[in-house]
Amino acid sequence: MKLSADWRTEIQDMWGIQILESIECAPQGALWTTRCSKTKSDVARGRPKDFYVSPVNKFFYRWAEEQGVRYGVLSDKYGLHLDDEELEHYDLHPSVLTVSDKQRLGRLIQQKASEAGFDSVVFYSPSPLMSVPYFEMLCYSGLEIFYTTRLGFSAKCLD
Fold it and tell me: Can you give the pLDDT at residue 158?
C-alpha cells in the first residue's frame, strides 16, 4: 500500500491511529515503540537494543532511556519485543506477513502491552511509508495508538 501526500489523514482514517504533531501531546504512561529493523546484530538472543541495531533504532533507544520511559520494538515475529525481554534472533521481512499474521501479531502486541500495564502506545518511525505493516498490526491490537515521525519538542498540541 502506498500513502499519499495526505498520509496523516490516511493513517487516521484507515487505521484509527492518532497523529502526534509533537511528543509533548503524547499521553502520559504510554508505551513507546519503534519498528524492528533489517539491521540486526548477530547475537542469538537479546533485548531490543542488543538486537535491532539500525541508526533509527539506536537513536530511539537513546531517546527513550534519556526520557526514562518504557519502550518496545514492533516485531514481525513477536509482535512486541519489550525493552526488558530477551528473545531469540530471527530474520523475517514484513512483506511475507499475511493479514492473519498481522491480526495475530496485533493480538500479541495487545497482550504484552496490557500485561506490562499499558493501554496506549506511541509509535515512532521517521518513515510513514515503511511503517504501513506496523500500522496494520497496531490497528489489530485494539489499543489506543499514537504515531509520530519526530522525537523532538517543537510544535504545540493541536486541540
Answer: 47
